[in-house]
């Protein structure tokens, strides 16, 4: 994964290329080349690209893995206080707890709309098939991290043990 220092280095080279494109554009406009307006577009695009790379060099891109977490997919997110993740039905309770911690870390954003609430509600669900042709969503647990702090020592995780009993067991 690229670090902020890598993005700063890439920004430097992109800026040099942007200045080179600008110089060629000025030369093309003075000499009235047929491709002068293409160079105007290229230079504009390079300015936007360099600005975006510079912005990425300012904001750290961090991903903190949680040991024991398994892959999940985000199935519902209001951008506010509700989110649902989907996990595979062969997950264990310890893996689910780690996965909920990982989801709480990944879904944290200062831009979430709290609507007078202080916590994000992340639910974990899976799909089981009790009979042929029937699919049933099953809630396995939920986490309630803070909307205002990434380092939440008050993270509340609840595992629904009775729903884990409904999961199909590989030995059965």
From TrEMBL:
It holds the Pfam family DUF2518. Keywords: Membrane, Transmembrane, Transmembrane helix. InterPro entries: Uncharacterised_Ycf51. The chain crosses the membrane at residues 12-31, 38-61. This is Protein of function (DUF2518). It comes from Crinalium epipsammum PCC 9333. The lineage of its organism: Bacteria, Bacillati, Cyanobacteriota, Cyanophyceae, Gomontiellales.
């Amino acid at each position: 994964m690229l670090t902020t220092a890598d993005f700063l280095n890439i920004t430097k080279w992109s800026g040099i290329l942007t200045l080179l494109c600008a110089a060629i554009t000025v030369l093309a406009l003075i000499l009235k080349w047929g491709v002068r307006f293409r160079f105007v577009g290229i230079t504009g695009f390079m300015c936007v690209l360099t600005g975006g790379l510079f912005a990425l060099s300012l904001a750290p891109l961090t991903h903190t893995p949680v040991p024991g977490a398994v892959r999940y997919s985000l199935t519902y997110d209001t951008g506010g206080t509700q989110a649902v993740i989907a996990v595979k039905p062969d997950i264990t309770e310890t893996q689910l707890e780690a996965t909920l911690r990982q989801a709480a870390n990944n879904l944290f954003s200062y831009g979430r709309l709290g609507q007078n609430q202080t916590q994000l509600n992340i639910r974990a669900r899976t799909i089981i098939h009790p009979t042929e042709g029937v699919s049933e969503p099953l809630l396995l647990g939920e986490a309630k991290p803070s909307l205002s702090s990434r380092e939440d020592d008050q993270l509340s995780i609840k595992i629904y043990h009775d729903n884990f009993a409904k999961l199909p067991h590989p030995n059965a």
